[in-house]
Amino acid sequence: MTDDTDIKPGDVALDRTQGRPVHVLEDTGQTVLQWSNENGYDLLDNYGNSRCGATAEDRVFEVVYCSSIQSEPSKTYAMPESRLDRVETEKADNGRQVYDRIVVDVLDQLFQRAGRDDEQAVAVLEQYATDAGIDADVVDEARELAEAAQLGGEA
Questions:
Q1: 138 domain-assigned
Q2: CA distance 98 to 73
Q3: Could you tell me if 46 and 80 are in contact, meaning their C-beta atoms sit under 8 angstroms apart?
Q4: What average pLDDT score do residues 73-89 get?
């Protein structure tokens, strides 16, 4: 499975076959082949996916259509990355994807709590985040924010 896609949970993308916007809910962590085998449905046989040149190695994302305020989403869809064109909404806000904002915020809060409870917990949390594959710059930013909040007296 390739990890070079820039699609992350929280992103808005366009379904290339329908031109409709979707909200990316989850990276399944699976390739098309893995997802197809686990779910008993061949994503490569899907007409829309085949039109986009999906391959067995494409990553699969769970998405929901979000094209109309009148129609509430009723189900999610598994889509290969080749079917999705990510809308780079973050360009209007200094280039940070929604997913990265959430990760920094959650880690900041965890570092603050860990710092209040036990300094050893901060080191463990930092190691856990690094081991989980979170970008080191994101971990550093969150820790710095937590330290600044503690120095500033925020709860």
A1: yes
A2: 20
A3: no
A4: 88
Give the domain range for residue 80: 12-87
125-139 pLDDT per residue, tens: 888 788 878 888 888
CB atoms within 10 A of CB 16: 17
For 58-79, write each residue's pLDDT tens digit.
999 999 998 767 767 778 999 9
- Collect all residues with Cβ–Cβ distance below 8 Å to 143 and sequence separation of at least 6: 107, 111, 122, 126
- The number of folded domains in the chain is 2
What pLDDT, on the 0 to 100 scale, is given for residue 90? 64
Bridge partners (DSSP) listed for residue 126: none
List the one residue out of 109, 134, 96, 129 whose CA is nearest residue 11. Answer: 96
Whether 21 is in a domain gets the answer yes
What is the Cα–Cα distance from 4 to 114, expressed in whole angstroms?
32
